[in-house]
Amino acid sequence: MDGGVPYLYPERLKALRRKRRMRARDAARRAGISTAHLHRLERGERPNVSAVTLARVAMALGTSVE
Fold this sequence. Notes:
Number of domains: 1
Order of helices and strands: HHHH
Distance between the termini: 12 Å
Shape: globular
Structural class: mainly alpha
CATH architecture: Orthogonal Bundle
CATH class: Mainly Alpha
CATH superfamily: lambda repressor-like DNA-binding domains
Largest sheet: none
CATH topology: 434 Repressor (Amino-terminal Domain)
């Protein structure tokens, strides 16, 4: 992490969502973000994400932010 901004590992995010057998639309809805935003996170287009968004995505996928 650089400057306190959480770093997101896109390949891990997508793999975890698929492991949970969740569609992107469902994971995004549970996290309170748009499907387009989730896709950008999974493609690595938004590697630095707010701690709040990271926590929401983690909770939606049933995991920790670690």
